[in-house]
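Researcher: Last one for today. Full complex below.
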Amino acid sequence: MRAVCVIGLGLIGGSVLRAAAAVGRPAWGATIDEEDSAAAGRAGFEVLATEAALRRAADEDALIVLATPLTAMQGVLRQVAANAPHALLTDVVSVKDAVENEVRKQVPTARYAGGHPMAGLAESGFLAGSAELFSGAAWAVTIEERTPLQAWREAARLALDCGAHVVPTSAAAHDDAAARISHLPHMFAAVLAAVGADGGPLALSLAAGSFRDGTRVAGSPPELVQAMTEGNKPALLDALDDALGRLGAARGSLASTGGLKSTVDAGHQARISLEELDTDTRETSAVALGENALFRLRELGELGGRVTDVTEDEATIEVPVA
Amino acid sequence: MRAVCVIGLGLIGGSVLRAAAAVGRPAWGATIDEEDSAAAGRAGFEVLATEAALRRAADEDALIVLATPLTAMQGVLRQVAANAPHALLTDVVSVKDAVENEVRKQVPTARYAGGHPMAGLAESGFLAGSAELFSGAAWAVTIEERTPLQAWREAARLALDCGAHVVPTSAAAHDDAAARISHLPHMFAAVLAAVGADGGPLALSLAAGSFRDGTRVAGSPPELVQAMTEGNKPALLDALDDALGRLGAARGSLASTGGLKSTVDAGHQARISLEELDTDTRETSAVALGENALFRLRELGELGGRVTDVTEDEATIEVPVA
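Model: Here's the assembly. Have a good evening.
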């Protein structure tokens, strides 16, 4: 089993380290955060200095997983270039196009495929994580013109070992999707919480499920939310414009005719689509991992397909039946 | 124990009927919905024709609870005027000013205090309800210039018997608060769901906690959401304008400086305020139910106070310590 070297041992990195070790893979980590480092050490994991961890990854041809914040990525990639320039490389950062570009620029010789597990943010730090954090979650693994098949397979294999299923996608399509289903929800939660609190203690004391659910992620660490949302600026601007358009239309309709039927119905239909995705009949097929296989997988990802197994020769993908 | 007559036996009315019976109060109901009527009958409850139910309430000086949709309120109040014009009367409709005005117009002799339990909407109908639906929930009971002390006490008593605590408030303040913490969340959930679904199957297949939580109430029956939100038009317009202002400011800031710190921080602080409300130290005091007692309770409600007991002579209220 291929070894795993995790750089950054917060909630996500720490959980990847645990999950990789739990399936029996050799695994070690590095972090500049002293609390996370101490916590991982106490939990029995091998924690090295970053350069030492990377050099060992180069020696053992381990998969390096970058789990630092986007804002630290430039510096970490310089260290990768210096210590493991030909490494198998992936990451778990919430935006993909920016990381993809930075990797191409700084470590063009790395065998890289970007990743993003869609899980967890309410707490942070190594101690908040667990080997089960990704169980049942979606995990995007990106496919670009230059993505090496081996890198994609290794990143996908890690995601599957962590208990997730893999959604094959381009970095750009991922970022557009993430803006809509992760970054905009964080903006909405923040705005909703603030408008509610503007109603004073009376409003908050009447708050029930709809407000509590709708504002839950506003409880996430603000610096993480800020980094995540600001890091996906172009796609988030598009999503915000769509949202402002729909919300403005609802406001206009309520003010003029008094009707909110089209807003409510569209939202209901969309939510039903989400729920149906969980229960839809899916057709399972095997994609041979030859030439153009990754683009075929990416097309199936656009249709809602999820990869549930990856071997040396083929990927198993479940696609909703239309 | 005062008898309870519930008109409308959907999720909320059916749950009130069950909870009232569960504490040993004589209770009966009426509904024009055949399914709810049959289900309540099968569950062992006495279901009468609406006029018969109201006449019996008049005979036994029961508390009448109107649990029909806002859109049906006018017709039901005409029946109350014809059959129980001096009744003790409350309601469980999600807007309060409109109901208050309609009651004053149609049944000016009724002893009325409006109510609104902050619970449940994801499903509808008698069968979706339970005696425990309101357990631990807030239940607004309104106080206006003309609210009779006895009517408020009886409505509050019912809420407490249902396991809720009582938030004393004016109808207008309730409607403003409800717009912010219930109706706007439903608008946000609808818009968020639609913007997410516009991202296609890929976006929905990447959706995790933030999107699922933020869109949950978009799964509610659309006709109920529409009636509830449209019924609170002036207050909801204010809340929508606040939200559009905050969201537009975030959009502007992201587009210009690229920064979302003030939006994220304000939302985080607001969410913390909500969570603190559950854990705040509270000071318990007793308010003697004499002259001006209701206005005193209403003031304490503005500060986040909740009534946890009501006797013939006094109300016990817990107010957060500043």
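Chain A has a mean pLDDT of 96. The domain at 175-259 of chain A is CATH 1.10.3660.10 (6-phosphogluconate dehydrogenase C-terminal fold).
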